[in-house]
Amino acid sequence: MKKLTLVVLAVVAFFVACQKEVSSVKDAKNPVKSGVVTTSQIPGITFLKDGYPYPNITNNSFGANDGIGWFLDLNALAGSYKSTSTQGATSSLGGEELYCGGIKTVNMLAGQNILMGTLTYANDADNLYITYTTNPDWYMSEIHLYVGTLAGTPKSGGGTAVPGKFPIKSTFTSSTLAQSVTYTIPLSNVPASGFIIAAHSSVLRVDTDGDVVTKETAWAAGPRFTSTKNWATYVVGQLGDCAPPPPPPGFTSNQSTK
Fold this sequence. Notes:
There is one protein chain. This protein is mainly β. 12% of the residues lie in helices and 32% in strands. The chain has helices at residues 2-28, 74-78; strands at residues 36-40, 46-49, 52-53, 57-58, 104-110, 114-123, 127-134, 138-148, 168-172, 180-186, 196-206, 212-220, 235-236. Strands 1, 2, 3, 4, 5, 6, 7, 8, 9, 10, 11, 12 and 13 form a 13-stranded mixed sheet that branches. Mean pLDDT is 75; it is low at 18-33, 52-65 and 80-90.
């Protein structure tokens, strides 16, 4: 009887060890474990969070629940790679001279009328660059982005924009909350006939102790999709002209060869 008991215990221990091994393999293959997940239905998208690239852009399903409580460990946030990047309302796009037509800036509003950051966008000859940037006491837990025609915006039957169906989405955990995120979108995926930018985010405002004082949704300011109670808004996008500037007055072609 004693031998039988020992055999049973050995078999149970073996199965438990196997289960742990399988679980660890699954975790290693699960991008959610990194704390940042970005999905995109648009090919060629690249993604920077606080100045650092995240290659794990997948086409996985997307969950809407941020799972973040009402307290943040600010020391944990400050102790990550995030602390080496510029935070606050400063876009990471760099100088205006890098782009065709400079950089355009739009306010990001939380709860309809609270300024919590900015949306900046610009283009060169190949790509459109879009950056979400928060003020120092705001963090993003979720981002939804649509760039395309107004008619093609994912909407409900009543015409309300549905952020959860936007083609570009990112989620962050309590230890990877974002204050600056940049998406690079090939111009081949931007309608040449005109486009809008629908930029949505789930945001949190914290005090100096790390207490979350509010959770809101935020949109880049602009016209509303509908005139109903839903306040979802969009930006009418404008691409900068990448044609070379005209020659100065009095310039002749002969002068260019001298």
